[in-house]
Amino acid sequence: MKVLITGVAGFIGYHLAQRLLAEGVQVYGIDNLNNYYDVDLKKARLAQLHSRAGFTFQFLDLADRLGMAQLFQEQTFNYVVNLAAQAGVRYSLQNPLAYVDSNLSGFVNLLEGCRQCQTQHLVFASSSSVYGANVKVPFAVSDRVDHPVSLYAASKKANELIAHVYSHLYNLPATGLRFFTVYQLQLGLARGGDPIWLTTSLCKRLRPTSLLTFTTSAKCSGTLPTLMT
Ligand SMILES: NC(=O)c1ccc[n+]([C@@H]2O[C@H](COP(=O)([O-])OP(=O)(O)OC[C@H]3O[C@@H](n4cnc5c(N)ncnc54)[C@H](O)[C@@H]3O)[C@@H](O)[C@H]2O)c1
Q: Can you give the pTM of this predicted structure?
């Protein structure tokens, strides 16, 4: 089984890749290594992944339309997980076009690839930010999300809508994950590549990550790896 992970040098992408590789899945990762935060951290994650059997990395920007088309011409993926995005709510005030390129144009480039190679299932990162100005808590998948308050949030809501269109028109099964604040026990990597861990006492004070999923109406085919079900 071969899985494409976009944003594989990122926080969630790296951990997903490690988990899938441990399960014997072939992982093809792409990332543009943008400088939204420390690029050395992303490179250190990639160095760890490169040491694992079954991992392939390609430096590629989702917004590179021709590059993305070529990727899907040359490779076939059973599943695609889209974690690449321009993240951050505040940054979207300073650099709005980064969100248009990565989260809108880039997302459609990816969907086109999935359509061409008839990917069995697309899993993509949405965000709790889609709840925007909602005041009702706790949030629910059934809540309306029509009042985003940042371009980042609007781009994630747009992803959900566009994925629904591809699901409806081309029978592409797609599931969006509305991540809330995701955190890890690992603080970073030391020079030698060893992980640095948070102390247990601090971890105990943290609450588990919440996750709401948004699934399109197309029928799912195939079986997802356990992590994604
Ligand atoms: N971490 C959270 O708390 C959280 C919360 C809500 C939603 N999300 C979403 O989950 C996904 C993963 O989050 P993360 O915390 O791992 O983010 P991250 O920034 O650590 O990882 C994203 C990766 O995508 C890459 N990337 C960005 N734009 C790209 C592009 N155009 N082409 C190729 N690669 C590109 C970046 O270089 C980075 O390595 C993102 O879509 C994010 O919006 C995360």
A: 0.87
